[in-house]
């Protein structure tokens, strides 16, 4: 299938599965932009994406990236999910210079936390696993005016952390973001620390509790979530 055929077919399928009532409910529940959301349940979106991947993976690399750009330009949440899932599934086509393209996507097509977390997991997470020497790039996102880019600095490390990598960088990210006023940034690095705590429990517990007086309670609670209740209670008294 040509990219334009894939695009028109997947648009038709997603529209046929759209549920306005479900869309309105989820958009309100998670504070999503209803105008960019069709209301297709995520498992259904992922099934559709998987079904079309047999056509996507047969494309030349340049056509693959063209299709991704066209899909993202639609600025529809479900089409973003499909695109980022294709990048993850076809990560073999990633080359090191593609990081600049992914940064452009982050700035241009991220409008809420759902977009942010999806690109962090399926694109940046996979990219940093494939090109580990580039992970320090996230430090450049810390001072961005774009809150999603600041959140991404932390959330993009989750997959590498699960593989036992980048503990020092995770701590550095936390220290640089610790005074960030945005709730969703605080939740982002708190989530990052929570994941790290499952690999390095003693190290992260000591690190987090040492910052009890300066770390916002939102991030603090997220970071401690996986510890046994007695340890959480002790930390919350600090």
Mean pLDDT: 94
- The parts where pLDDT drops under 50 for at least 5 residues are none
H/E series = HHHHHHHHHHHHHH
Q: How far apart lie the N and C ends?
A: 60 Å
Which descriptor suits the 3D outline?
globular
Q: Give the amount of beta strand, in percent.
A: under 5%
Q: What is the overall number of helices?
A: 14
Helix content: 55-70%
Largest sheet: none
Number of strands: 0
Task: Kindly provide the radius of gyration, computed on alpha-carbon positions and rounded to a whole number of angstroms.
Answer: 19 Å
Features:
mainly alpha, single chain, 238 residues, 68% helix
Structure description:
The structure is a single chain. By secondary structure, the protein is mainly alpha-helical. The protein is 68% helix and 0% strand. It contains 14 helices and no strands. The longest helix has 18 residues, at 113-130. 36% of the residues are buried.
């Amino acid at each position: 299938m040509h990219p334009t055929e894939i695009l028109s077919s997947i648009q038709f399928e997603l529209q046929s599965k759209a549920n306005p009532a479900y869309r309105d409910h989820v958009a309100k529940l998670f504070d999503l932009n209803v105008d960019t959301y069709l209301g297709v349940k995520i498992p259904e979106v992922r099934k559709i994406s998987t079904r079309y991947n047999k056509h996507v993976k047969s494309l030349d690399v340049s056509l693959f990236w063209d299709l991704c750009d066209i899909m993202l330009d639609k600025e529809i949440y479900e089409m973003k999910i499909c695109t980022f899932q294709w990048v993850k599934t076809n990560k073999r086509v990633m080359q090191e210079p593609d990081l600049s393209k992914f940064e452009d996507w982050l700035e241009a097509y991220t409008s809420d936390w759902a977009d942010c977390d999806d690109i962090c997991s399926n694109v940046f997470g996979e990219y940093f696993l494939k090109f580990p020497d580039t992970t320090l790039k996230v430090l450049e996102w810390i001072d961005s005016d774009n809150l999603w880019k600041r959140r991404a600095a932390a959330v993009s490390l989750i997959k590498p952390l699960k593989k036992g990598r980048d503990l020092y960088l995770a701590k550095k990210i936390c220290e640089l973001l610790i005074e960030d006023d945005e709730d969703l940034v605080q939740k982002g690095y708190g989530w990052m620390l929570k994941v790290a705590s499952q690999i390095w429990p003693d190290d992260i517990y000591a690190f987090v509790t040492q910052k009890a007086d300066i770390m916002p309670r939102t991030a603090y609670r997220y970071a401690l979530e996986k510890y046994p209740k007695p340890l959480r209670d002790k930390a919350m008294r600090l």
